[in-house]
């Protein structure tokens, strides 16, 4: 009869959704190697985000973020501390990270961590376990098991990522009906369908993203004073400036009238700077506008990020109007963008 581990490995071997594989691994570990919490995390920039958790001691849920600089997994990933630590007090190099966790009222007596790698060998995230109290030294025997499961997750991640990229390429090829004919950007229908398609994928992998909303200042004045042909040129100039300023592949849309939207592949720490840069780029193109930015979070999704970015954009508009009169076609307007703090 196959063991439970052999059954899990067999189920993970065929291509399957990465989030389902993470759930299976975390549930298996919670059943066979009980700890205060087991989780699969994603590491992007300065943040470590929990994607899947099985918690019985800490109240850690999917979507919880911790600073990578104070994470116990950081020293593990660098190879300076062990992957399995039965008693954190016996590993001096973990002392600073353990103290940082204690300041956040998280007591860590035992720690397990093993990396999940992307196809190019870079760090995607970790399988991590924490326990409030130290565990017997016999606990160290689980390192081989952890390495096996993280290796299996790395394989599933590679296969699922390749399938996602193929699906995205196909979707781009059939998106003519979702394109704004004036600017060549996505229209509102394409924007909404993109978010519906990508919501599960971003939640699955914990990929970094931010929603950016733009509202142009001068379109109505241009249409009224110079005519609709000039207004069309104004919109095309806006689209060209944005395409030049954003990363290739990031979905950019004209949502109707003078409103544009962007899903940027940046983390929460870089979202505010991106908004400032895009607002400045549009001002340089004689397209002053209001901008709002909000990060995507696995526990809120695109619906929450879109609402927060929209609210931030209107707050930016009010602040700019209060600061000075707004005139259509005036370049160099570089008021600070309003960012939603994560």
From TrEMBL:
The lineage of its organism: Bacteria, Bacillati, Actinomycetota, Actinomycetes, Pseudonocardiales. One of its GO terms (molecular function) is diguanylate cyclase activity. It comes from Actinomycetospora corticicola. InterPro entries: Diguanylate_Cyclase, GAF-like_dom_sf, GGDEF_dom, Nucleotide_cyclase, Rev_trsase/Diguanyl_cyclase. Residues 207-329 form the GGDEF domain. It comes from the Bacteria. Pfam families: GGDEF (PF00990). This is Diguanylate cyclase (GGDEF)-like protein.
């Amino acid at each position: 009869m196959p063991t439970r581990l052999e059954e899990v490995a067999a189920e993970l071997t065929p291509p399957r959704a990465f989030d389902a594989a993470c759930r299976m691994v975390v549930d298996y570990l919670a059943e066979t190697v009980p700890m205060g919490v087991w989780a699969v995390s994603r590491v992007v920039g300065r943040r470590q985000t929990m994607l899947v958790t099985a918690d019985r001691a800490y109240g850690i849920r999917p979507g919880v973020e911790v600073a990578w600089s104070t994470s116990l997994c950081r020293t593990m990933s660098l190879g300076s501390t062990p992957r399995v630590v039965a008693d954190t007090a016996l590993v001096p190099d973990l002392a600073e990270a353990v103290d940082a966790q204690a300041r956040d009222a998280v007591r860590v007596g035992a720690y397990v961590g093993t990396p999940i790698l992307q196809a190019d060998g870079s760090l995607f995230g970790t399988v991590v376990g924490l326990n409030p109290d130290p565990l017997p030294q016999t606990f160290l025997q689980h390192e081989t098991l952890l390495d096996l499961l993280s290796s299996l997750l790395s394989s599933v991640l590679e296969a699922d990522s390749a399938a996602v990229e193929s699906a995205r390429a196909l979707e781009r090829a059939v998106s003519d009906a979702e394109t704004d004919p004036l600017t060549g950007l996505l229209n509102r229908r394409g924007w909404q369908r993109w978010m519906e398609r990508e919501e599960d994928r971003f939640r699955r992998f914990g990929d970094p993203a931010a929603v950016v909303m733009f509202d142009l200042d001068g379109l109505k004045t241009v249409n009224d004073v110079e005519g609709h042909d000039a207004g069309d040129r104004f919109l095309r100039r806006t689209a060209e400036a944005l395409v030049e300023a954003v990363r290739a592949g990031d979905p950019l849309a004209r949502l109707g009238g003078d409103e544009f939207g962007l899903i940027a592949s940046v983390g929460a720490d870089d979202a505010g700077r991106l908004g400032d840069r895009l607002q400045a780029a549009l001002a340089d193109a004689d397209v002053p506008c209001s901008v709002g930015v909000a990060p995507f979070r696995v526990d809120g999704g695109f619906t929450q990020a879109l609402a927060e970015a929209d609210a931030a954009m209107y707050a930016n508009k009010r602040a700019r109007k209060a600061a000075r009169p707004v005139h259509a076609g005036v370049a160099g307007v570089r008021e600070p963008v309003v960012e939603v703090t994560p």
